[in-house]
Specification:
heterodimer; A: Heat Shock Protein 90; three-stranded parallel β-sheet; 10 strands; globular; B: alpha/beta; two-stranded parallel sheet; 5 helices; 47% helix
């Protein structure tokens, strides 16, 4: 069977949707073939986006879990791209299984003067060692972003809040072996692109298994999720993650929020808040979140204006 | 039984309190100590996530109910106080804003591309 070849573009534009559009194409490729041999071809690539890298990392991990194989091609003579891919620990990310949690600070220090974080594939398990590692990893990521963005106060708190809520959703609902975080700051454009993804069971199945709210389909499940109808049986205090984070990002920080699961996505920006059902061959197994976070000195922003839900 | 159990949260967890599970582990350790007077000292804790706060809040109430323990929170910064206040006030929030969102379906990749590039 022919391998699936994912052609990574030379560059993606600044448009929020451009890298996501490439993600749609890659997802369609995986859905249209039974091949488990994936070739990720970065040969023409010069600059890429966290929305692409984060999504491809998820697709690659999912393929490995299903017994497939991944090959990554890139021009090793292209010093800039090769250096970047090496620095972000592409494609596996940092191996936390063989890392001492107390050495994470050292591991992350080389990134303090960069504008990106390494690919983080954090463990989602509930055994003590994984809980400790996840806690330390999230602290390291939040500390790294604080240093890179030179942020303090309400915006920093807001970003940490959103990262923690989105990653906790993966732990609580996905049944994914790992969660993925990847981010890049664009200093001249003053925004941070943040991708958080998993390759688990997806939102609709999570609702079905919880027997709560019983959405008819993924469209309704996403509608429930973005307004805080939790899949947990103690819903009264749960389910605030997506609902508060998207409002904080879009209304508070004037950013953009994209959430995809199965054949459906939710988009919220200044001019729209809607649910989109994708064409037949585009179904993402798991959940994928893309957030564009403007890093502006917005003294009006108070993160706790958005935490009540 | 210890009279007063003082917990330096930054030493037990870290300066950032991120996950629900870390809150559970912290409180399990406290429960095993079987003290009737517990002080959680949040000195040098910079940030508490909502998930941590929600679990901490639930476990604190359980400690008070089960062990009849007196639980104090000391030296928490404004963010920690705020998120604990928020989760306390939203534990039984029965009315949440809800609206049925518009749904658009695409069966054609070109139209989908046109849509997503317009965001």
């Amino acid at each position: 069977m022919e391998p699936i070849r994912f052609l990574i573009p030379k560059r993606t534009s600044d448009s929020f949707g451009d890298p996501i559009n490439y993600m749609f194409k890659y997802i369609e490729q995986t859905n249209l073939s039974d091949s488990k041999v994936y070739v990720f071809d970065f040969d023409s690539c010069r600059f890429t986006s966290p929305f692409l890298i984060g999504g491809l990392t998820s697709i690659a991990n999912s393929n490995l879990e299903n017994g497939g194989s991944n090959t990554w091609l890139y021009n090793k003579n292209d010093e800039y791209l090769a250096g970047y891919l090496n620095a972000i620990k592409f494609p596996e990310g940092i191996d936390f299984q063989n890392t001492n949690p107390n050495q994470l600070d050292e591991l992350f220090k080389p990134y303090y003067d960069k504008t990106y974080i390494p690919i983080i594939c954090f463990p989602t398990g509930l055994i003590h060692a994984e809980i400790i590692m996840r806690e330390k990893v999230l602290t390291a990521v939040n500390t790294l972003l604080k240093n890179q963005l030179n942020l303090k106060g309400q915006i920093l708190t807001g970003i940490s809040y959103m990262i923690d809520e989105m990653t906790q959703n993966i732990v609580d609902h996905s049944d994914s072996e790992k969660g993925i975080i990847f981010a890049q700051f664009y200093p001249t454009k003053n925004y941070l692109d943040l991708c958080i993804a998993d390759y688990g069971k997806g939102l609709y199945k999570s609702y079905q298994e919880s027997d709560k709210h019983n959405p008819k389909n993924t469209e309704e499940a996403i509608n429930f999720a973005v307004f805080g109808k939790s899949t947990k049986n103690i819903a009264e205090s749960r389910g605030f993650g997506i609902s508060t984070s998207r409002e904080m990002l879009v209304k508070g920080l004037k950013g953009k929020f994209f959430f995809m699961s199965d054949d459906t996505f939710y988009i919220q920006s200044q001019d729209r808040q809607e649910v989109i059902v994708l064409p037949n061959n585009i179904t993402y197994k798991g959940c994928y979140v893309a957030m564009r976070i403007p890093i502006l000195n917005n003294e009006q922003f108070k993160y706790y204006d958005f935490t009540e839900g | 039984m210890k009279a007063l159990l003082q917990i330096q949260v930054v030493e037990e967890v870290s300066e950032m309190l991120n996950t629900r599970e870390a809150a559970t582990e912290l409180m399990n350790a406290v429960r095993n100590a079987n003290s009737k007077h517990i002080e959680f000292d949040f000195s040098n804790v910079e940030f508490m996530s909502r998930s941590f706060a929600d679990q901490f809040h639930k476990e604190r109430i359980r400690l008070q109910d089960e062990l009849k323990a007196f639980v104090e929170i000391s030296n928490a910064n404004e963010q920690v106080v705020n998120i604990l206040r928020t989760v306390a006030s939203t534990q039984n929030k029965s009315k949440r804003a809800y609206e049925i969102l518009p749904v658009f379906k695409f069966s054609n990749n070109d139209l989908l591309e046109e849509y997503i590039l317009s965001v």
